[in-house]
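Can't paste images in this forum, so I'm doing it all in text. The chain is below; anyone willing to post the predicted structure tokens underneath?
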Amino acid sequence: MHYRRFGKTNWQVSEIGYGMWGLAGWTGSDDKETNDSLHRAVELGCNFFDTAWGYGSGLSEQILGKLIKEHPGKKLYAATKIPPKNRKWPSKPDFLLEDVFPNDYIIEYTEKSLTNLGVDCIDLLQFHVWEDAWANRDEWKTAITKLTEQGKVKHWGISVNRWEPENSLQSLKTNLFSAVQVIYNIFDQNPEDNLFPLCKELDIAVIARVPFDEGTLTGTLTYDTVFPKDDWRSTYFVPENLKASVDHANAIKPLIPVNLNLPEIALRFILSNPDISTIIPGMRKTKHVESNIAASDGKGLPANLLASLKEHRWERTPTKWSQ
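Text version of the structure:
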């Protein structure tokens, strides 16, 4: 495992972190399998774990808290998120701050996450949705400043809405945030335009989420793929998105060298960008932990392949089903 500096925090975090969304809202989750994969990740050097209260109403946080306790000799960075009070993902431009993150609510859910994680101080606490229109509002600033001064949160971050990387720029300029979490992968290259340069200027860490485009870049989806109704992906891969996603994945497959596979290329594409601090793929299965972490060997991708993949940038805008 290779490690990278996590912006102004000066933490050294694993290039491959562990995204814990898959522990809730996805079918096929198995407690033992999850536990085995988490411990294997730690064994292989993973030290950054991203969760949220919204993943199972605190269950994912509790699982992470248990993991931290079981590895007292290792520093495992816990990153979690405050859910929007209106429970609506993603945020919309007309949402009011007082309906999503009022002052007392921020404090209330910080306390809930502290309890679930079983820690006295949260390493990184992120807003699970965000609107840049809130950048100059004093309420959230007052709340997070108070919690930081009380020693309950070390650093704060924003999780940017899907396909809206620039819906955060003014907020980051407040210098109250140490990290931003954004979708970045072969298809979603928009953060390179303005978000990454600003983060570099302000020394803000970048967490790349959805490296496999919700599964498209694993190469396993087909035009006939159907997810169970209680699986979140059934509402995301609606017919028009499923077809387009498979089309885009198929267009990349001819570029894959014989010694690589599509998931590995997807991770190495991201790791080839020095602006990225860590990637947080979901990896409930031990075999996925091992294959994902194997991509952290410092090699990246050959320049010619990287240039070819750059041409597969897919311009998308939020829709009702994109959530």
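The domain at 3-310 is CATH 3.20.20.100 (TIM Barrel). The CA atoms of residues 158 and 180 lie 5 Å apart.
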